């Protein structure tokens, strides 16, 4: 195969791969995400979900694939967004202490996604966000927070609440 044809096929494959996410979303790992920090929008957890729904998405669901979690966290760090708190699609709003992803799966409470000491059980902090912790070693973790707080958010194309 000549080099021109190889280059054409490579560029065609790259264009097709980039086109796999809807406009405004970026491919990170095997998933498509929209980061509201890019558009400067902060919202409460519920309003963030409403905004994601406008794009046929929902708040990001993690722990489906550890490799995708690693890609997402690496992307956030590489973009320099470590000081930004971002809502994801987990809460214990339905029952205190029973953390669930918006797709109906329970959030593993022993997961290393949670920062030590999180979530703050028995509080009014019922929604999860990603935050950066750099005291012992740099790491992005899940934290719980008041759902009414205005934070950036991550929309996950293809993540949908269980009906």
Question: What is the element layout, followed by pairings?
Answer:
Elements: H1 3-18, E1 26-28, E2 31-35, H2 45-54, E3 57-59, H3 66-78, E4 86-91, E5 100-101, E6 127-133, E7 139-145, E8 152-157
Parallel strand pairs: 4-8
Antiparallel strand pairs: 1-2, 2-8, 3-8, 4-5, 4-6, 6-7
What does this structure look like?
- Strands 1, 2, 3, 4, 5, 6, 7 and 8 form an eight-stranded mixed sheet that branches.
- The longest helix has 16 residues, at 3-18.
- Residues 1-17 have low confidence and may be disordered.
- The protein has helices at 3-18, 45-54, 66-78, and strands spanning 26-28, 31-35, 57-59, 86-91, 100-101, 127-133, 139-145, 152-157.
- It has 163 residues and is of the alpha+beta class.
- It contains three helices and eight strands, in the order H-E-E-H-E-H-E-E-E-E-E.
- The chain is globular, with a radius of gyration of 17 Å.
- The chain has one domain: Mannose-Binding Protein A, subunit A (Mannose-Binding Protein A, Chain A, Roll), CATH 3.10.100.
- It starts with a helix and ends in a 6-residue tail after the last strand.
- A hairpin with a 2-residue loop joins strand 1 (26-28) and strand 2.
- 24% of the residues lie in helices and 24% in strands.
């Amino acid at each position: 195969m000549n080099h021109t044809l190889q280059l054409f096929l490579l560029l065609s494959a790259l264009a097709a791969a980039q086109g796999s996410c809807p406009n405004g979303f970026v491919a990170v790992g095997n998933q498509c995400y929209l980061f509201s920090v890019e558009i400067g929008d902060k919202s409460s957890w519920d309003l963030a979900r409403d905004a994601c729904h406008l794009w046929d998405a929902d708040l990001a669901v993690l722990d489906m694939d550890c490799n995708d979690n690693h890609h997402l966290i690496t992307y956030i760090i590489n973009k320099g967004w470590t000081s930004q708190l971002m809502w994801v699609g987990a809460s214990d709003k339905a029952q205190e202490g029973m953390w669930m992803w918006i797709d109906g799966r329970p959030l593993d409470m022993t997961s290393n996604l949670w920062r030590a000491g999180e979530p703050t059980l028995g509080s009014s902090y019922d929604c999860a966000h990603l935050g950066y912790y750099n005291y012992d070693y740099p790491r992005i973790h899940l934290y719980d927070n008041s759902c009414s707080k205005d934070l950036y958010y991550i929309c996950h194309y293809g993540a949908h609440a269980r009906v």
